[in-house]
Write a structure and sequence with these properties.
The chain has 69 residues and is mostly helical. The protein has four helices and no strands. The protein has one domain. Helix 1 packs across helix 3. The longest helix has 17 residues.
Length: 69
């Protein structure tokens, strides 16, 4: 979700999930490569407290299982 939100922008990322929301977050997919986006998100996540990282890891794992892998 964080990757799509950064790459596509908030409105487009949420619209892909069926949510109509006027997000001010622009998409950076035309300015950053996918690897650059992943690196930026990895850095941001590295600043999170341990508890937040664990919660996010659990959510990500649940999303992967829900997507079939």
């Amino acid at each position: 979700m964080l990757f799509d939100y950064t790459r596509l922008g908030g409105k487009a990322a949420l619209a892909a999930q069926g949510i109509d929301f006027a997000s001010g977050m622009p998409g950076f997919g035309d300015q950053l490569t996918d690897d650059q986006i992943r690196n930026i998100l990895a850095y941001i996540k590295s600043t999170w407290p341990d508890r937040q990282r664990q919660i996010q890891a659990e959510r990500s794992a649940a999303e992967r299982q829900g997507d079939g892998g």
